[in-house]
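Lab channel / #folding
Pinned by the channel admin:
"Please post every new chain as: sequence first, then the structure tokens as a reply. Keep commentary short and put observations after the output so the thread stays searchable."

First post following the new format, from NK:
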Amino acid sequence: MRPRAGDLVVSRWGARFRGRRFACAIGRGGISPRKREGDGATPAGAMALEYVLYRPDRVTCRPGWEPIRPWMEWCDDPDDPRYNQRIRRSGAGGVERLHRADPLYDVVGVLDWNRYPPKPGGGSAIFLHVWRSARRPTEGCVAFRRPDLLWILERWGVRSRVIVTT
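Reply from TO:
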């Protein structure tokens, strides 16, 4: 797949977008063309940005961004019919809280990996989010310094994609 102008191109060495280079963190399992739930890999391929979530108590809203509410979770249980979807707090296992105490999900770009329809076990919750620390691996997402992620998302175009290359 050939990147287009306006695409965010990610590799294990970093990312580039709109003429700039950024340090980023990828999954602890590296980049994989065969993503599986729990493998810690960032999926290789082209992904669209579906929407952006943000913590209204920590980040200024941008037009079109949706606030993260305390009841929001993401289902990552392959046996659940709600797999790879945003859900209301359920109290069940196999979910990830979106309203976190740490800053990782202060801003979240939800990518369309394995979404329509989700294939159980094909990987869930692939996001762009704030990194824990410099290049510290994620569970499969792509993470950036908060100012870099905000810069990228503020310049995102309707045709922009995330291209993860091996």
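NK: The mean pLDDT is 95.
TO: also worth noting, The chain has one helix and 15 strands.
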